[in-house]
User: Fold this.
Amino acid sequence: MDRILLVRHARADGHDESDPGLGELGLRQAEALAEQLAGEDVVAILNSPRLRARQTAELVAQRIGCSVRTTHLLEDRTPVPSARRWDDYPPHRWERLREVPAEERDEDGVALSAAWSRITAPDAADGDADGAADDLTGGGHVADIGTGAVGGSASTLVLVTHVFVVGWFVCRALSAPPAAWMLLPVDNASITELQARPKGEHAVVRFNDGGHLSER
Assistant:
C-alpha cells in the first residue's frame, strides 16, 4: 500500500464527552468527502471507535464500496508530556496540556506512536502481524492492509480519526519535535495525504485539504 489518507471526522453535533454523532453540517461534509474519494483506489477504511468517526467512515464506505473497520489504533488521544518531558513544550502551552481529560491523555504520545508504527510496519504488509494487530485494534486486523510495502499497483488506505491523531501521525512521518502537532490545524472532513517512500519513510504531499467542502 503506497498511500495513506488521514481524514479528520466530519463535524459532530454535541460535546465530546457524550460521544456525539454527526449533525446536519457533518452529514453534508461526509457526503462531500465521499464524493471526493469516490475516484480513489481505496482498498479499506479504518476508523476510530468514536461515533462521529464511525459515521463518517461508514458514509464514505457506502459511497465508494469498500470495507470499513473500527480500530482502537485511531482512538481520540491527546499527547501530553510525562513528568520529565515538559521542556519539550514551550511554557505557554503547559496550561492547555494540563487541562487534557484523563481519558484522552497519552503520555509522550506512546500509544499514538505505537499505532503509527503498527499501521506502517513492513510486516503488516507481509501478513505476519495478526497477533500484534489483535492487541492494538481490539479484534480487528491490519495484516492484509499494511502500508509498509512499497511497490505493486497503487492503492490507498483511509484512516478516519481525530484532530490530534492526524497531527501526531504527520509529525511522526516528518520526524518533527514532540510539540509540533500543536501547530497543525486540521479541519473537519479534511484530507491529509501521505505517500510511502523506500526505507519506511512517508512524504506529506497534501495537508488539511478541504477544497471539496468549499460549497458545503
In short: Strands lie at 3-8, 42-47, 67-70, 78-80, 105-107, 156-161, 191-196, 202-209.
